[in-house]
Amino acid sequence: MSASGSCGPSALASPIAMPRSDEERLDLSGMRIGELRPSQLGGLRALRTLVLRHNALRALPPLGGFPLLESLDLSHNELSELGPDVLAGCARLRWLDVAHNGLRELPAAGGCWQLEALRLDRNRIEQLHGVPHALPLSLAQLSLRENAIASPQQLRFLASLAQLRALELAPSPLGSAAAEQRTPLQPLLAFLLPSLVALDRQLIGNIDRSAAARLFADLRPADGCAHAHAPIRPPTGAPAIVALDPALLRLLRPPCTDDALWAHLRAHAHAAAAAASAA
């Protein structure tokens, strides 16, 4: 309840007992906080864990005043964005939970170069094209369950996350073919993400990575832009270990101007092929 006696969300009230400046954890969950002012959290430079879940936050002030922050829980709020100013200076952040909000774009966490785990379940994210800039290469776990990602073409932007080991996508509206047949997604994502170990909490086996290497290692972009999005066929003589939906394969035929991304994908394919041969 706010100081005025109403039951609606309010700014953090001053009577709330705040931790000493040398304390490392602050839990303000379930307090119906609608606004968080920088002055109200000032001086907590030793803070390592900040929990703000189950509030009514629609925006956040810059959190750079917590240089030691490692864990941040913003789940179950009303955030529509997490701009670059919010996490600037949070270089030690390792765990970020922004699930159950209203984000339409990825959080700007590129400067959190030690970030290992990110939860974005139940938001309104439709596009992944910002992954190379918004998310750091250190990311090992990513959950995007129950978002609005409807096009499998968006998955190619995950290729920049070379250290990603666990990915959760389902349930999501990626199309009936991908929803009904999970198997085609496994070799595709094994090709894009050579470090991936688990997809939707299921292990990616050696047969999937071997299939990805055989199916994708020799692919080349089309010579002309008119055929840039033509279906891709497996290399001649490649064993048909899995049946891949052409709709999923088409996303790997980028526009002619996307040479850098294509080179990046080919590098991943050769690395996967080498790993499969070594095994």
Largest sheet report = 9 strands, mixed
**What integer value in Å does the Rg equal?**
22 Å
How are strands sequenced across the largest beta sheet?
A: 2-4-5-6-7-8-9-10-11
Helix content: 10-25%
Q: Hey, roughly how much beta strand do the residues contain?
A: 5-15%
Quaternary structure classification: single chain
Q: Total number of β-strand segments?
A: 11
Low-confidence stretches: 1-6, 219-262
Structural class: alpha/beta
Principal-axis shape: elongated
Structural commentary:
The structure is a single chain. The protein is of the alpha/beta class. The chain contains seven helices and eleven strands. It has helices at residues 84-87, 131-134, 176-180, 185-192, 206-216, 246-249, 259-278; strands at 10-11, 25-27, 33-35, 49-51, 71-73, 95-97, 117-119, 141-143, 166-168, 198-199, 202-203. The strands form two sheets. It has a nine-stranded mixed β-sheet, with no helix packed on it. The longest helix has 20 residues, at 259-278. The model is unreliable at 1-6 and 219-262 (pLDDT under 50).
